[in-house]
Design brief:
single chain, alpha+beta, Nuclear Transport Factor 2, Chain: A, 2 domains, about 40% helix, rod-shaped
């Protein structure tokens, strides 16, 4: 009988250990009673545009319209755009003045290219003209519609003829650049002058 009592004692001992472990697990992990709210209901509803950059950097007064682009395009950087716009202006004007149609074709829309090509063919360009200074006066407009970013920039440029500073001519131009919102290319196309 001694052997049977020992088995009974082992079963009670293991049951007590299992009960203690269950008690400790419930006290640590807790228990679900069925009255808790569903976790999905507790989550705040996410805005569909959570992936859009909401951190708009500090813009100068003459750049404030670029907020429209920041609100809709995650990868937009106004400093990169404005530097690129200045470079594009200089490259396009230099290409126009020298009659470089090949360069123009890659940087401007078909309509703008047609106007530049016509002017070059009529000898309205001046190969002896060169830049003296160039600044961006302001951003006239900035919008995102139909998957296209469109930004109009006011430029003030000074050009001179044959390195003669007495021949400086000051011009004010408004150019519109466009780019698809999902494009990874750094190139913006000039669509209006």
């Amino acid at each position: 009988m001694l052997y049977g009592d020992l088995q009974f004692f082992d079963i009670i001992l293991f049951a007590a250990i299992a009960g203690f472990i269950i008690y400790r697990l419930r006290s640590v992990l807790g228990k679900r009673t069925g009255f808790q709210k569903n976790n999905i209901e507790n989550k705040p509803k996410q805005n569909k545009q959570t992936n859009i950059k909401q951190n708009i950097p500090t813009l100068l007064d003459n750049e404030i319209k670029l907020e429209n682009v920041y609100k809709k395009v995650n990868s937009f950087d106004h400093k990169v755009f404005l530097e690129g716009a200045k470079k594009a202006f200089e490259i396009i004007i230099t290409a126009f003045n020298s009659g470089d149609k090949k360069t123009l074709k890659t940087l401007v829309s078909k309509d703008v290219y047609s106007a530049f090509e016509k002017a070059i063919n009529n000898n309205s360009n001046n190969p002896s003209a060169q830049f003296y200074s160039l600044i961006i006066e302001s951003v006239e407009s900035a919008k995102v519609e139909g998957g296209i970013i469109s930004i109009s920039v006011n430029f003030i440029s000074e050009q001179m003829l044959n390195n003669d500073e007495s021949s400086i001519i000051k011009n004010k131009d408004t150019w519109t650049f466009e780019k698809e919102t999902n494009s990874s290319s750094p190139i913006w196309i000039l669509t209006q002058t």
